[in-house]
Design brief:
The protein is an alpha+beta fold. Helices cover 41% and strands 19% of the residues. It has three helices and four strands, in the order αβββαβα. It has a four-stranded mixed β-sheet, with helices on both faces.
Length: 113
């Protein structure tokens, strides 16, 4: 059965806590990714954006949506079972789309290969 976007969601707080507690970190100046292997055979991810990153809910949601959409094509092709927590900076809201895709792809390929 093909992978659906819903299959890529990391939603349970217990699973997210496990990633924060025992995961490895990869980062650049705009994004930080914490990752931990899972038993599913496909990647799952979440994009939490705190109020420290952006006070406005509109801005936080924009950062979250842009990051999620940039990550989804890379993760749909992924076959490695890994849980990811992607933590974007506030600069992601105004970053040009090709630049965001490139940076996120570079980080994710380091993890997924």
């Amino acid at each position: 059965m093909p992978l659906r976007p819903r299959d890529l969601r990391l939603t349970r707080s217990g699973d997210i806590r496990k990633v924060f507690a025992g995961g490895k970190r990869v980062q650049d100046s705009h994004l930080r990714i914490i990752h931990l292997a899972n038993h599913l055979g496909h990647p799952r991810f979440c994009v939490p954006v705190s109020r420290k990153v952006a006070r406005s809910a509109v801005r936080r949601n924009r950062i979250r949506r842009r990051t999620r959409e940039a990550a989804r094509p890379v993760l749909m092709a992924g076959t490695k079972g890994v849980d990811l927590v992607i933590l974007p900076n506030r600069t992601v809201a105004e970053m040009p789309w090709p630049e965001l895709e490139r940076r996120l792809r570079q980080l994710l390929e380091r993890i997924l290969t």
